[in-house]
Amino acid sequence: MLRNRLLFTQNAKSINLAGIAPSPNSRAKGNVNFCTKPKAKLAAILPALLVAFTASFASGNAFSATATYNDHAQTIADTKVKDEERFTVIAHRGASGYLPEHTLEAATLAFSLRPDFIEQDVVITKDDIPVVLHDIHLETVTNVEDVFPARHRGDGRYYARDFTLEELRQLRVHERTNSDGSQVFADRYRGNHANFKVATLAEHFELISELNRQFGTSVGVYPEVKSPAFHIKEGIDASKIVVDALNAYGFGGESGNSYLQCFDFNEVKRIRETLGYKGKVVMLIGENDWGESDTDYEWLRTQKGMQQVALYADGIGPWLGHLLDKKAMAQGKIEAAEWIKYAHENNLTIHPYTYRHDALPAGMSSEQVLEVLDNVIHADGVFTDHLIPVLRWREK
Prior knowledge:
Keywords: Glycerol metabolism, Hydrolase, Signal. With about 400 residues, the chain is α/β, with parallel strands linked by helices.
């Protein structure tokens, strides 16, 4: 599970959406270069654009001169009363900006900071137990190569599906690494002695449930069914397992404090129609070449696509790189991409992924990025690795 985003790191050839999305050849799913046209012109005007952006907020008249998002402002007002809603903060893989992702320790730290939801990406073990890992592979976040060097498949990857829970317990979870062993985010957790472990979905749900009970809080869960088609080929229904777990811990159903997310549109439809799930569902939107599923994400970002999504899902989780109109940026404006209008017209909740404090746009502050999401995109919240700056901004 912009289930990995307004991260425009400027360089001479492109805008680098650092840490936003996987490139097809990246094991770490850490970086991708998103090239725009005309590149040189955009690179030249971006600093001035950001200065104007900052000045507009300082004057208290943000985007009044440049944004043309007003065409559908009335539609947005009719479907969502933004001033009366709280911007939702979702702990992306737990407090993953501070501790190794998806560990119980990262979930506990996230809970202590009081987000609205904590995310769990779910894959299934050899003995059919749901565990919380971002990928169906293990080598990017564990020492599986050292413990089970011969247990990879023909593609050289180590699949969680090939290991029992008992075997996964023998692994140590570490910060996400590149193929050369270097950390994807160099300044994040660097310790070598803490024994972080792979945890089950039941352990995560129990932890959050018990902390909620003891502290009188209502932090929700936000699980993602990872690669459901892969799991079906492996003979296991990952979606049913996750739905059953949500219901068992009181997070499921229409009144449950959760969202269930997936990158596979056919699976979203199956969750509704075949599994009969009544809780809130989010359709994640990526790029077609990421290999997340056979869903045509470009089609989803059309008027008809958003209408179809709204038949099955309560919201969308778009990649940050899809949110802004690139032609407008080339003209010195900050405007929402045209397709965002269709999401609002269909009253879809919008939770973009992923804000990372260590991958901010060059010359742009944390607050500016978040103001764009709130005031230009009119997003309902954001997934974040770094809860502290987002929660501080929301308090203001």
